[in-house]
Amino acid sequence: MKRFIAATLLAATSLVATMAHADSLADIKKAGTIRVAIDLGAPPYGQLDEAGKPAGSDVEAANELAKDLGVKLEIVPVSGPNRVPFLLTNKADVVMASFSITDERKKVIDYSDPYGVVPTVVGAPKSQALPDFASLAGKTIAVTRGTTSDQALTKGAKEVGGVNIVRYEDDATTNTAVATGQQDLIAAAASVVAQVNRANPSRDLEIKFVMSSAPYAIGIRKNEAELKAWLDQWIKSKIASGELNTIYKKHFGIELPAEYRGK
Predict the structure, then answer these.
(1) Which domain holds residue 163?
(2) Which of 72, 78, 108, 239 could form a disulfide with 37 if both were Cys (CB 3.0 to 4.6 A apart)?
(3) Taking the model in full, what pTM does it have?
(4) Strands 110-125 vs 54-55: parallel, antiparallel or unpaired
């Protein structure tokens, strides 16, 4: 048992030492490649275009990052659940996959400064004027039960009163209800509005207002001070130049909040 414990501790120590060394800024430059984990199944952050090539806001940002770092970009496809494991097991150098900052994740990884936000919005046909929560009074709006969109809508609607919220059990059902005209208004992630329009262009939806925003950042392993410092400075410069806002607006149809536009 003592030998087993000793071996386990040695293995853990070796893993930590390897992780701390393997992906320093100098190592990435020496390799000439940065491996960026991106979820290619989460449009508009990451997806495959009609030619089967990676596209999306995170893909464009990652390309800019690699170019400015002076290395090649290698995209490591990930899904939501395996973003952290891929980072911790050295399958990727960094994560750029609509990676929201949470206290739980911060226990095991570090983040760069935020470079974007995941917005929850209210969408409706262009013909309807809905500038804020107050304009939802007397209206019916669809949302997926238990999501961050549901939470933001419930909070805002409570302050207004008279809002009829129809909760569906999953995103597919919610989106279908709006795409088929069963519902006109929807509370969802900003990317959903574009998805509904693609499913039925005649719905002609647009984003009316943002309910809430959760910042996302580049995920890195802990104790990588040099890499974090470089990434933070890169984000600062790209915010100041407006390049990150240009990418964001292209894919989401709205601008980043003022604090992410150097305003």
Answers:
(1) 119-213
(2) 78
(3) 0.71
(4) unpaired
